[in-house]
């Protein structure tokens, strides 16, 4: 009889925090302070800054404090859908919507920048993005109108991905219950809105569900 191989202890997923662009420079400073505070007790791996679509002003002044705060807590800072802005802000990379946008941004971001892929409507989209060179794939995040796939779909795709593929998987959670479910499913990173950082103790407990 073959002795069962003992599985290694599961590593807790790290957080990937989504932050909407503040309306002004003062808002940027306030959001940066909150981010630094959260980073003192939570394991935040990455921060995604989301400039408002179609904004007329240059968002640099509003976003620069958040780039600095991300780096201060040891987190990578990414800019949504804008590789050029990521380079201008000296961020760590960009998060692109779909395989086509990813491929279009790779030349600007390589060799040192992070290129992440979201907006993946199908499993084929996710595999195409990984083959193109995405540093991670993301499942379940809201679109520009705030709509997102059913959570059951996000959970199923997360489980599918972590079983079969090497690039890291980021899975979006809209609540503490979803955080725990994705942690148990084995997501490498769990994406949350920055507003959920206010519930630090409960968030840490939900993440710990992966090792229970």
Task: Give structural attributes.
8 strands; 8 helices; alpha/beta; disordered N terminus; eight-stranded parallel barrel; 212 residues
How would you describe this protein?
By secondary structure, the chain is an alpha/beta fold. Helices cover 42% and strands 20% of the residues. The chain contains 8 helices and 8 strands. It has helices at residues 25-39, 60-72, 83-88, 98-109, 123-132, 151-164, 176-185, 200-207; strands spanning 14-20, 44-50, 76-80, 93-97, 114-118, 136-139, 169-172, 189-193. It has an 8-stranded parallel barrel, surrounded by 6 helices. Helix 1 (25-39) links the parallel strand 1 (14-20) and strand 2. It is globular and about 40 Å long. The two termini are 28 Å apart. 41% of the residues are buried.
Topology, element by element:
Layout: E1 14-20, H1 25-39, E2 44-50, H2 60-72, E3 76-80, H3 83-88, E4 93-97, H4 98-109, E5 114-118, H5 123-132, E6 136-139, H6 151-164, E7 169-172, H7 176-185, E8 189-193, H8 200-207
Helix pairs in contact: 1-2, 4-5, 6-7, 7-8
Terminal CA distance reads 28 Å
Q: How many DSSP-defined strands? A: 8
Order of helices and strands: EHEHEHEHEHEHEHEH
By helix and strand content, what is the structural category? alpha/beta
Helicity range of the residues? 40-55%
Mean pLDDT: 90
